[in-house]
Amino acid sequence: MKMKKMTAALLASVMAFGFCGSTVQCEEQETAVENAGEEITITDMIGREVSVTPGSYERVVCVGAGALRMYSYIGDVNLLCGVEDIDNTTLEERPEMFDSVARPYVLAYEEVFSMLPSCGVGGPMAQAAEAEKILSCEPDIVISEFEDVEKEDALQEQLGVPVITLKAGSKGVFDEAFSGSMELLGVLFGEEERAEELIAYVEAEAAEITSRTADIAEEDKPAVYICGLGNWGTTDHLMTAENFVSLNIANVKNVLSGTGMEGIQPIEEEKFVELGEDMDIIIMDAAAVKNIIPLYQEDPTMFDTCKAWNNGEVYLEMAYNAYYTNFEIALCNSWFVAKTVYPELFEDVDMMEKTNEITNMFLGQELAEEIFACPSSFGGYQKIDTATFFGEN
To answer: What is the CATH number of the domain that holds 132?
Structure first.
């Protein structure tokens, strides 16, 4: 059959935040769609060329952190023929470290996942796919988030079916790697329109947040400290970032601006104390609260220098990272950040309604109540009463 190549990492949809690719790439994507049912060669998100037959797959396995989540946004979960133990909440023996945190794809499709055989343990300790368990599920395609070219090539050779690797990117839901992964899934499963719809929605949401806040004068911007970022369960009030996408999109002043930090990392306690008097607002990721509470109870003076703490300007956003990025929650958090910092500009935004809207777009279900009911959500987006929340005496 005639072979055609497209570059999935830059599949084009004209996006204001760098999601767009070239006209040539748009034409290549259209060619792939036109040839649905024919074998083509795609380039997955880590640069591997793989022969696939778009629209032909009926037995799907997803392995690695985030793979099943991303597939759930685009693909039909009824095509799944296996699931990692971490995503089957009915199993007695399985990784449970994320069970108290909202993972919307699990909330949406928990019943479907519970009926499927195991394709591996999954979870942060699983550093490689389990080929034998995957083979026992008899998939005709594997969607993976193990971003290692040699391992993915070896797994594909063992399984004898296409192994397609996705990627998220450091900017999460706003990263072109995320949009590229959605486009790639759309091509593989004949869901191009669905992929385009989701990408366009994310782009429009980001653009609206930015446009609402574009005219705020620098001197009128409160200084925000966002913390508890990074890997769920391993972070606290010192884990933060200077260049954090949700703050950037909402034109929010980061108290760390100018420090030269790269990525998400902890600051020293001395730096936290030094910056405390400049912190107008603190936003904490809910996943870190379980670590911050005992630290505070051990040393109640840890926030004494922090203006936001003393003024009662401490807020809770939902955990955006649990078995990799909760993309829909990351988008919800961006709205919450903007509403928290600029309440007058976002007075019309109700976080329960916005969360339902976003989860409905991503997963076809309104999940706000279930997300907020998870133990580590502490009831949902809120301004924290520190005296009761952190157990002050």
So the answer is: 3.40.50.1980
Which residue in 60, 83, 172, 65 sits closest to 127, CA to CA?
Answer: 65
**Whether the Cβ atoms of residue 330 and residue 71 lie closer than 8 Å to each other:** no
- Does residue 258 carry a pLDDT above 90? no
Q: Is there a contact between 300 and 392 (Cβ–Cβ < 8 Å)?
A: yes
Does residue 215 lie within any of the structural domains?
no
Query: CB–CB of 303/155 below 8 Å?
Result: no
The Cα 192–Cα 206 span in angstroms is 21
3-state secondary structure of 273: helix
Instruction: Give the chain's domain count.
Output: 2
Given this model, what pLDDT does residue 93 score? 87
- Alpha-helical segments (H) within 21-148: 23-34, 67-74, 104-114, 131-136
User: How far apart are the C-alpha atoms of 298 and 201, rounded to whole Å?
Assistant: 45
Q: Is 85 helix (H, G, I), strand (E, B) or coil?
A: helix
**Does a structural domain hold residue 214?**
no
Residue 207 covered by a domain? no
Does position 26 have pLDDT exceeding 60, yes or no? Answer: no
The first and second tokens of residue 146, run together, are 């193990």
272-298 average pLDDT score:
94
CA atoms of 184 and 195, how far apart (whole Å): 8
Specify whether 190 is located in the same domain as 268: no
Residue 161: strand pairing partners: none
Strand order in the sheet with 49-52: 5-7, 40-43, 49-52
Could you tell me if 186 and 229 lie in one domain? no
Say whether both 197 and 247 belong to one domain.
Answer: no
pLDDT, mean over the chain? 89
Per-residue pLDDT of 50-109, as tens digits, reads: 999 999 999 999 999 999 999 999 999 999 999 999 999 999 888 887 888 999 999 999
Q: Within a domain: residue 125?
A: yes
Residue type, 258: G
Domain that holds residue 24: 5-202
Closest by CA to 56, choosing from 35, 72, 74, is 35
Whether residues 192 and 236 fall in one domain = no
Amino acid at 43: T
Residue whose pair of structure tokens reads 């990627």 in the numeric block: 167
- The amino acid that residue 74 corresponds to is I
Taking the model in full, what pTM does it have? 0.88
Assess whether 107 and 170 both reside in one domain: yes
* Positive/negative CA dihedral, 71, 4, 15, 240: positive
